[in-house]
Design brief:
The chain is mostly beta strands. It has helices at 5-9, 57-60, and strands spanning 13-23, 32-37, 44-49, 64-68, 74-76, 79-81, 84-85, 87-89, 95-97. It has a single domain (11-97), classed as OB fold (Dihydrolipoamide Acetyltransferase, E2P). The protein contains two helices and nine strands, in the order αβββαββββββ.
Length: 111
């Protein structure tokens, strides 16, 4: 399926820094609860992420990631996810997070 640039422009993808990582024992598959700082007008948002194969809480705090910030909140068990953290699968299907290779300002928009 081909989309127009206008369709793509509707997706608000921003860079943010993970500032807190909490366990999510209620999740059906192993996951973390992330708090991500997008700065400015967006502020902090929370997300559930199934990224325990490659990351620990200690390696995630301070890491910059890309996330969709304009999806509606999604209820995941007892938790409400406010953003969609972006990642790609490795050869085994485990999620590898997507982020800038240099430090950038929080809230920067992907274009």
């Amino acid at each position: 399926m081909t989309i127009s640039y206008d369709d793509f422009a509707k997706i608000d993808i921003r860079v943010g820094t993970i500032i807190a990582v909490d366990p999510f024992p209620e999740a059906r598959k192993p996951a973390f609860k992330l708090t991500v700082d997008f700065g400015g007008d967006i502020g902090t948002r929370r997300s559930s992420a199934q990224i325990t194969d490659h990351y620990t809480a200690e390696t995630l705090v301070g890491r910059q990631i890309l996330a969709v910030v304009n999806f509606p909140p999604k209820r995941i068990g007892p938790f409400t996810s406010e953003i969609l953290c972006l990642g790609v699968p490795d050869a085994d299907g485990a999620v590898v997070l997507v982020g800038p290779d240099q430090t950038v300002l929080n809230g920067g928009r992907l274009f």
